[in-house]
Write a structure and sequence with these properties.
Layout lengths: L9 H4 L1 H19 L4 H30 L8 H30 L8 H30 L6 H22 L3 E3 L5 E3 L5 H8 L1 E4 L6 E5 L2 E14 L7 E8 L3 E13 L2 E7 L3 E8 L2 E9 L5 E9 L2 E6 L2 E7 L9 E19 L7
Antiparallel strand pairs: 1-2, 2-14, 3-5, 4-5, 5-14, 6-11, 6-14, 7-8, 7-14, 8-9, 9-10, 11-12, 12-13
Helix pairs in contact: 2-3, 2-5, 3-4, 4-5
Length: about 350
C-alpha cells in the first residue's frame, strides 16, 4: 500500500506527532486565556493523547525502518542519536498525556486549579524542545546523509563498495593499520605469520592451531579448543567485519569488541543455527538479542556498536539489535571455540565517531 517513492512507512507518519503536539500546546494556551472551560480542557487532553499515540507510531515505524536497512557506518551515530531523542520525546508526552486525561475528567477542585494548569502548560511547551531536537536529527538523516532518499543512498552504497574494493586490492595479503585507528586484514600468502605478528593473543595458543593460507584466505584448524586474538588499538564505538566460512566448525565464532580482558567483552556470536549478541561479564553471558541463522557457506558478519545500541548483520541483513549500557573502549578481534576448520578471508575493525551537526 506504500507509494513507490516511500522506502517505508516512517516518512508518511512522522509529521503527525509534530503537528498534533504543537496543536495541543496551542489549545493549552487558548484554554488558559479563556479561563479553563471544561470542554476545552478535555479537547486539549485528547490532543495530547493523540500526539503521544502518533509519536509511538512514528517511533516504532522509525525503528523498523532503521532495522530494515544495511546502514552505512558513517550514518549510524546520527541514527542512534535520533532514536534516543525520539524515545525521550515519547516517554515525556506519553506520561504528560496520561496526566492530562486524568485531570480533564477528574471532578476534584485541584484538577481545575489555575496553578496546576499553568504548570502543565509550561511542561507541554517545554516538551516541544524534545520534539525539535528529534526532528532536527531526523532532518539531518535525510538532508545531510540522504537516508531514505533512494538515489543518494544508492550512490553512497556504490561509493563505499568501490572504496572497499580498492582498499582490498591495495591491502592484498597485508595487514594494514588505518589512519582513524582501525585496522584491516585480507589474509593471503604468509597470513600465518601475519596472524602471529599483528594480533595480540588473549586466550589459547597460536601454536596449537593449524593455520594454512591459500586462495580462499586463511584456514584455522581447531582441535576442541578456544582461541581469542585482537588487533591493535582501543576503539570506542566499533564496527568489526569478518568474512568467514564456518560450516566445517563444530563450535562458535564470536566477533569481539570493547575487550577489557578474556572474560569481559562485547560480542556477536555465530553458532550452528543461531546468532547471539551480548556481553561477557566476568565470564558470564548477558544476552542482548538472539535470532535464528540458516545461512550456510561464506558469510559476511558485521557487528556495530555505538552508545547503547548494538547491531549485528549477516550478509547485509540486520538480524540482532540489542541495547545495553555503553561499553568502555577496548580492542576488537575474533574468538573461536570448538573443533574443525574455519576459513577467514577478511577481518577488519574501525572506530565509529559522530559527525558534527550540519
Amino acid at each position: 500500500m506504500l507509494p513507490d517513492w516511500a522506502p517505508n512507512l516512517h516518512p508518511l507518519v512522522v509529521h503527525f506527532p509534530i503537528a498534533l503536539l504543537f496543536l495541543a500546546v496551542g489549545f493549552d494556551l487558548v484554554t488558559w486565556l479563556l479561563g479553563r472551560p471544561v470542554a476545552l480542557l478535555r479537547v486539549t487532553a485528547v490532543l495530547y493523547a493523540l500526539g503521544a499515540i502518533s509519536a509511538l507510531v512514528a517511533f516504532l515505524t522509525g525503528r523498523a525502518a532503521a532495522d530494515s536497512l544495511d546502514l552505512p557506518t558513517a550514518v549510524i551515530p546520527a541514527v542512534t542519536t535520533h532514536a534516543d531523542w525520539a524515545e525521550r520525546t515519547l516517554w515525556f508526552f506519553g506520561i504528560l498525556a496520561l496526566v492530562r486525561l486524568v485531570l480533564a475528567w477528574w471532578r476534584h477542585p485541584l484538577a481545575r486549579a489555575g496553578w496546576v494548569h499553568g504548570l502543565l502548560f509550561l511542561l507541554g511547551a517545554g516538551g516541544l524542545w524534545l520534539v525539535y531536537q528529534t526532528g532536527e536529527r531526523g532532518a539531518e538523516l535525510v538532508y545531510a546523509h540522504g537516508l531514505g532518499v533512494s538515489t543518494v543512498h544508492e550512490l553512497e552504497a556504490e561509493r563505499d563498495s568501490l572504496a572497499q574494493q580498492l582498499r582490498l586490492l591495495l591491502a592484498a595479503a597485508q595487514f594494514e593499520q588505518l589512519p582513524d585507528g582501525g585496522w584491516h586484514w585480507m589474509p593471503g600468502p604468509g597470513a600465518e605469520q601475519v596472524l602471529v605478528d599483528s594480533f595480540a593473543l588473549q586466550a589459547g595458543d597460536f601454536t596449537e592451531v593449524k593455520a594454512q593460507s591459500g586462495a580462499e584466505g586463511l584456514s584455522l584448524g581447531l582441535t576442541d579448543q578456544e582461541l581469542l586474538f585482537t588487533g591493535p588499538g582501543s576503539l570506542s564505538g566499533t564496527e568489526i567485519t569478518a568474512r568467514l566460512h564456518r560450516d566445517s566448525l563444530q563450535g562458535i565464532v564470536r566477533l569481539v569488541y570493547h575487550l577489557q580482558d578474556a572474560k569481559n567483552y562485547d560480542f556477536v556470536e555465530i553458532g550452528a543455527t543461531s546468532i547471539r549478541q551480548g556481553r561477557l561479564i566476568n565470564g558470564q553471558i548477558r544476552l542482548f538479542d538472539e535470532a535464528p541463522l540458516q545461512e550456510k557457506g561464506w558469510l559476511e558478519v558485521r557487528a556495530v556498536a555505538y552508545g547503547t545500541h548494538f547491531r549485528g548483520y549477516v550478509n547485509g541483513r540486520l538480524l540482532v539489535h540489542g541495547h545495553g549500557p555503553a561499553a568502555n573502549p577496548g580492542p576488537a578481534g575474533l574468538y573461536l571455540k570448538g573443533k574443525g576448520i574455519i576459513k577467514l578471508s577478511l577481518l577488519s575493525a574501525r572506530p565509529i565517531t559522530a559527525m558534527p551537526m550540519m
